[in-house]
Amino acid sequence: MLHKSSKACVASYPCVVQNSILWFYPRSEPEHSDVLQRKRPPYIPELDDPSFVGGYGVRDLPYGYDVLLENLNDPAHVPYAHKGLMLEFDEEGGGPIRMKIEEANIDGFRSLQEKGYFKFVAPCTFYGSPFRTEAEDGQGKKKQPPTVMLVFLSIPVAPGRSRLIWSFPRNFGVWMDRIIPRWYYHIGQNTVLDSDIYMLHIEERNFAAAGLDNWQKACYVPTSSDTMIIAFRNWFRKYCKNQVGWATQTANQLPPTPTKDQLMERYWSHVMQCTSCSAALKGMRALEVALQVASVAVVGFLAVAKGALVTSVAHRAAVVAAAVMCFAASRWLADFIEKTFYFQDYVHAYK
Q1: What region holds the Pheophorbide a oxygenase domain (predicted)?
Q2: 272 falls within a domain
């Protein structure tokens, strides 16, 4: 006889694995049981193509889902918000970015650009290539020229909180991924995210003060490069009424602004969730301790020997130099660990 208890039952949600990501539909009612068979998440072939490489990254961010997606839809901010990290234009600001919006509806939109394309597949997927057309990316088994794609999944977490999952699959330089660990790529990728975290956090509060229905009054979007921003904001207004449908009722009140080191911290927002970065952190911590122990052990050896084993001045100098080098290396490694896995400030004025 099977005994059932409501205290020991959990809800069962429809779920599916696609592109190595677990998707689930957060409704447990019977009428939603086959929802992922009726409409599967967007499939991106390059993520499963063995001729492409590019693992995933994840970061929790201190601003909301709509601000995150708006930022991803804004190509013009890259050389300025990420100054010193990515593309550089001349002092006059470069030139226009021409794009055309197609197929704008409840399912998202597609943006055709001079040298590439991007697609927003509602509600959270944004992907494309800045250098190739969609037709070229859809050639299937045909031999493709060197290309790279940008894939972003933007997940609402809470008012003023979101999660970004990213991947940059490419079919060139594949050998590099056999040598360079994933955590090394994440150093640069996290620095890019750090460079505009504070600005976007403040931007969200400016939007809230003006009211999301009046978002255009809080900013100025006159150029062709703003086309995707306007398309996303129009989609968010028309189909979502400028808000995320949270499961529990919320006043949509933004959390208070924390200190800058809390806004830009990396350990809880990324490292703890990343197997590569957490393993690297563990190994470097062990190496730091080993270097400190070695420096103390060398000095202790020199003190105990008292000239019996280390007779010449040159030998003693070499032993002292080894101790100093071990200690200096441990201090450098401690600073590297702090900046890579915990917090590193980014000041635009210094770039």
Answers
A1: 120-211
A2: no
